[in-house]
Each structure stands twice: as structure tokens, then as C-alpha cells.
């Protein structure tokens, strides 16, 4: 992964994915695996280690784990 791609993905995650993910978690009270699947499906991204870590961070923060 190049620095430009990483910066682009961070930007997309912070501005688009994270807010939508929080709304999804609030509406569905789902588990972490469903969150990863949802993000990959809705945003047409691959489940990289970096993305899974960011989703897990959002999940833990949202559910207070």
C-alpha cells in the first residue's frame, strides 16, 4: 500500500465510513463481523488489516468495550 493510498483511505474512513458505520451500529446493534462485512459491501473496499483495526476501534468506542 502506498502512502497516497493510505492517506486517501484514512480520509475516506474519517469522513465517509466512520459516520455511516456509527449510524449502522446504532440502527442494527450488530457484531464486529457484520460491521466489517457491511463496510466492505457498502463502500466497495477490501477487508485489509488496517480497515479491520479501524472498524474494531469504532466498534469498541461505540459499544464502550
Main attributes of the structure:
65 residues; mainly alpha
In short, what is this structure?
This protein has 65 residues and is an all-alpha fold. The protein has one domain.
What does it look like?
The protein has one domain. Helices cover 82% and strands 0% of the residues. The protein contains 3 helices and no strands. The protein is globular and about 30 Å long.
Please work out how many helical segments DSSP would assign.
3
The total tally of domains equals 1
Sheet/helix structural class:
mainly alpha
User: What fraction, in percent, of the residue positions are helical?
Assistant: over 70%
Describe the largest sheet.
none
Number of strands: 0
Order of helices and strands: HHH
* Proportion of residues in extended strands: under 5%
Radius of gyration: 11 Å
Overall mean pLDDT stands at 90
Question: What is the rounded distance between the termini?
Answer: 30 Å
Shape estimate:
globular
Unreliable parts: none
Describe the secondary-structure layout.
Layout: H1 3-28, H2 32-43, H3 49-63
Helix pairs in contact: 1-2, 1-3, 2-3
Amino acid at each position: 500500500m502506498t502512502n497516497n493510498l493510505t492517506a486517501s483511505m484514512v480520509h475516506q474512513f474519517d469522513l465517509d465510513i466512520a459516520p455511516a458505520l456509527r449510524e449502522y451500529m446504532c440502527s442494527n446493534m450488530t457484531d464486529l463481523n457484520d460491521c466489517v462485512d457491511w463496510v466492505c459491501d457498502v463502500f466497495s473496499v477490501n477487508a485489509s488489516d488496517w480497515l479491520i483495526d479501524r472498524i474494531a476501534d469504532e466498534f469498541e468506542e461505540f459499544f464502550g468495550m
